[in-house]
UniProtKB/TrEMBL annotation:
The gene is LOC107573310. Keywords: Cell membrane, Coiled coil, Membrane. Residues 320-473, 522-556 form a coiled coil. One of its GO terms (cellular component) is plasma membrane. The keyword Magnesium does not apply. The keyword Coiled coil applies. Residues 19-309 form the FERM domain. Its main location: membrane. A 1,2-diacyl-sn-glycero-3-phospho-(1D-myo-inositol) binds at residues 73-76, 292. It is a peripheral membrane protein. This is Merlin-like. It is found in: Cell membrane. InterPro entries: Band_41_domain, ERM, ERM_C_dom, ERM_FERM_C, ERM_helical, Ez/rad/moesin-like, FERM/acyl-CoA-bd_prot_sf, FERM_2. It holds the Pfam family FERM_M.
Length: 586
C-alpha cells in the first residue's frame, strides 16, 4: 500500500518535458513543440532553420510583457524568462537591428523580404513618418512587388481597392477619393516594368532607409537635475536625444564611433564620449525592464556597427558569394524567362494575328459564299428575267408585226379615208354649189312670184277699175265708143250685147293658171329641197361614222395623230358648210 502511494505521488510531481510555442513572422505563423530545457537560442535557431534564414544577427524573438515588450535572451532558458504563461506561448519574429545600407548588408532574399514587410507595416502604422509623395512612390514599389508588371488589360481600375498602401494620415491630409489615389499610384507603378519582386522590395527599402524614423527605437527618458522629459533614440548610427514632440530632428546625437562607454546603475544611464574633453551625458529611465532593453539594443547596434567596419567573416563571404551566384543564376533565368516570355508573347501575337487572319479569311469566305449564293440567285433571276424578256421580246415582236400590219391596214384605210374625204369634200362642194344655185333660183322664183303677185294685184285693180267704169258707162242712154280691145294674155274679154248693152267678161283662167304654175314651182322647189336635205343628212352620217372610226384608230396607234389633227381641222369647216347649206335650204 505504501509503495502504491509513493508511485502516485511520483506521477503528480512529474512535469511535462515539452511546451508549445507559436511564432508569427511577417508573412507566416508556425507552431513548435519545444523541450523544457531549451534556451532562447535553441528556439531562435529552429525558427531560422525553418524559414531558411542565415542572416540571423538582425532578428530576434519578441514577446509582450505587461505594458512593454522584451526580446528573448538567447543564453537563458525560455521558461525561465518573463514569457507569457499561455499555451502556446506567442512570439513575434522581427528585425531587432537595422542595417546602415540595405543594399550592401542584406544578402539573402528572405532577409530582404522580411525587412520589406516589417518596414512597410511600420510606415502604414505611422511608426515611421513618411511624406505623401514618398508614400505614393513606396506604394508603387509595393504594388510592383505584389502584382508584377503592369498590364492594363489585366489591372483594371479598382484592382487596388482591397490593398492597404498608404498611411491613414496621408489619406486624411488630402481630399481625394480612393480612385484618385489609385490613379496616382498606378501612374508610378506603370513605370516599374521589368523590375522583379526582390528588386522592387530593395528599391522600397533604399527609399525607406533615408526616412528620419527608419530603424529608430524610441524610449521615454528624463534628463538629470531638471527632470526634463526627452526621447532616446537607438539605431544603427548611434544614440539620439529628441524632444517629446519631435521624433524627426534630434537635439543631440552620439554616434557609435564617438562613444567610449555606456553604463547604467539602476535607473541612471551614463554615456561617456570617446573624446574626454566632452561632457558625460546622463539620463534616467524609471523602468528597470526598459533600461535592460535599452542596454541590449545599445550593445547589439554597437557590435553590428563595429562588425560592419571589419572584414566579413568566412560565413558572410560565403553567403555573399552564394547570393551573388544566386543573383547571377536568377538573372540568367530571368533573361531566359524574359526571352521565353518575349517569344511566347510573340507567338501569342502571331497566334492572335493568325487567328485574326483566319477569322478574316473565314469572314471573307463566308462573305464570298454569301456573294456566290447571291450571284447564283441573281443568275437564276437574270436567267428567269432573260426568259421573261425573251418571251416579252417575242410578244413584242408579234405585237410589232401586228402593229405593222395594223399600220399598213391603217395606211390603206387612211388612203381610202382620204379618198373618201376627197369625194365627200367634192360632194359637199357640189352640194354647196347646188344649194347656192337653189338659193339663187329660189330667190329668183321668189322675185318672179313677187312680180306675178304684183301683176295680179295690178290686174285686179284694173278689173275693178274697168268694172267701175263699165258701170259708169252703162248708166247713160247714148252709145258708147269702146276702144279696141287689148290684145295679150292679160286683157279682159269684152262682148257687146246686140240689145245695145256692152258686156265685159274678165276670165279667171289666167289667174288660176298663174297660181297653179306658182304652186307647181313651189312644190318642185320643196321636193328638191327635201331631196337635198336627205343627201346632206346622209353625208353628215357618213362624216360622223368616219370621225368615230378615226377616233378609235387614233386611240390605238399614234401613227394617226397627224391625220387626226388634219381631220379635226377639216371637220369644223364641213359642219359650218353643212349648217350654212341647211340654213339656205330652209
Amino acid at each position: 500500500m505504501a509503495d502504491f502511494t509513493m508511485s502516485i505521488l511520483g506521477l503528480k510531481k512529474k512535469q511535462p518535458k515539452t511546451f508549445k510555442v507559436k511564432v508569427s513572422t511577417m508573412d507566416a505563423e508556425m507552431e513548435f513543440s519545444c523541450e523544457v530545457k531549451w534556451k532562447g537560442k535553441d528556439l531562435f535557431d529552429l525558427v531560422c532553420r525553418t524559414i531558411g534564414l542565415r542572416e540571423t544577427w538582425f532578428f530576434g524573438l519578441r514577446y509582450t510583457v505587461k505594458d512593454t515588450y522584451a526580446w528573448l535572451k538567447p543564453d537563458k532558458q525560455v521558461l525561465d524568462q518573463e514569457v507569457p504563461k499561455d499555451s502556446p506561448i506567442t512570439f513575434n519574429f522581427l528585425a531587432k537591428f537595422f542595417p546602415e545600407k540595405v543594399e550592401d548588408e542584406l544578402v539573402q532574399e528572405i532577409t530582404q523580404h522580411l525587412f520589406f514587410l516589417q518596414v512597410k507595416k511600420q510606415i502604414l502604422d505611422e511608426e515611421i513618418f513618411c511624406s505623401p509623395e514618398a508614400s505614393v512612390l513606396l506604394a508603387s514599389y509595393a504594388v510592383q512587388a505584389k502584382y508584377g508588371d503592369y498590364d492594363p488589360n489585366f489591372h483594371k481600375p479598382g484592382f487596388l481597392a482591397q490593398d492597404e498602401l498608404l498611411p491613414k494620415r496621408v489619406l486624411m491630409q488630402y481630399q481625394m477619393t480612393s480612385d484618385m489615389w489609385e490613379e496616382k499610384i498606378t501612374a508610378w507603378y506603370a513605370e516599374h516594368r521589368s523590375i522583379t519582386r526582390d528588386e522592387a522590395e530593395m528599391e522600397y527599402l533604399k527609399i525607406a532607409q533615408d526616412l528620419e524614423m527608419y530603424g529608430v527605437s524610441y524610449f521615454s527618458i528624463t534628463q538629470n537635475k531638471r527632470d526634463t522629459e526627452l526621447l532616446l533614440g537607438v539605431d544603427a548610427q548611434g544614440l539620439h536625444i529628441y524632444s517629446p514632440n519631435n521624433k524627426l530632428s534630434p537635439n543631440k546625437s552620439f554616434p557609435w564611433s564617438g562613444i567610449r562607454n555606456i553604463s547604467y546603475s539602476e535607473k541612471e544611464f551614463t554615456i561617456k564620449p570617446l573624446d574626454k574633453k566632452k561632457e558625460v551625458f546622463k539620463f534616467y529611465s524609471s523602468q528597470l525592464r526598459v533600461n535592460k532593453l535599452i542596454l541590449q539594443l545599445c550593445i547589439g547596434n554597437h557590435d553590428l556597427f563595429m562588425r560592419r567596419r571589419k572584414v566579413d567573416s568566412i560565413e558572410v563571404q560565403q553567403m555573399k558569394a552564394q547570393a551573388k551566384e544566386e543573383k547571377a543564376r536568377k538573372k540568367v533565368e530571368r533573361q531566359i524567362l524574359a526571352r521565353e516570355k518575349q517569344m511566347r508573347e510573340e507567338a501569342e501575337r502571331a497566334k492572335e494575328e493568325m487567328e485574326r487572319r483566319l477569322f478574316l479569311l473565314q469572314d471573307e469566305a463566308r462573305m464570298a459564299n454569301e456573294a456566290l449564293l447571291r450571284s447564283e440567285e441573281t443568275a437564276d433571276l437574270l436567267a428567269e428575267k432573260a426568259q421573261i424578256a425573251e418571251e416579252e421580246a417575242k410578244l413584242l415582236a408579234h405585237k410589232a408585226a401586228e402593229a405593222e400590219h395594223d399600220r399598213q391596214r391603217l395606211e390603206v384605210t387612211a388612203l381610202k379615208t382620204k379618198e373618201e374625204k376627197r369625194l365627200m369634200e367634192q360632194k359637199m362642194r357640189e352640194a354647196e354649189s347646188l344649194a347656192v344655185k337653189l338659193v339663187e333660183q329660189s330667190e329668183r322664183r321668189l322675185k318672179e312670184a313677187d312680180h306675178l303677185k304684183q301683176d295680179l294685184n295690178e290686174a285686179k285693180d284694173a278689173e275693178r277699175r274697168a268694172k267701175q267704169k263699165l258701170l259708169e258707162i252703162t248708166k247713160p242712154t247714148y252709145p258708147v265708143m269702146f276702144p279696141p280691145p287689148p290684145t295679150g294674155p292679160e286683157s279682159p274679154d269684152m262682148t257687146v250685147d246686140m240689145g245695145g248693152s256692152i258686156r265685159m267678161d274678165f276670165k279667171d283662167s289666167d289667174m288660176k293658171r298663174l297660181s297653179m304654175e306658182i304652186e307647181r314651182e313651189r312644190l318642185e322647189y320643196m321636193e328638191k329641197s327635201k331631196h337635198l336635205q336627205d343627201q346632206l343628212k346622209e353625208l353628215k352620217s357618213e362624216i360622223e361614222s368616219l370621225k368615230l372610226e378615226e377616233q378609235q384608230q387614233a386611240g390605238l396607234y399614234s401613227l394617226r395623230t397627224g391625220q387626226s389633227e388634219h381631220t379635226s381641222l377639216f371637220r369644223p369647216m364641213s359642219f359650218v358648210k353643212i349648217d350654212a347649206f341647211q340654213k339656205g335650204g330652209a
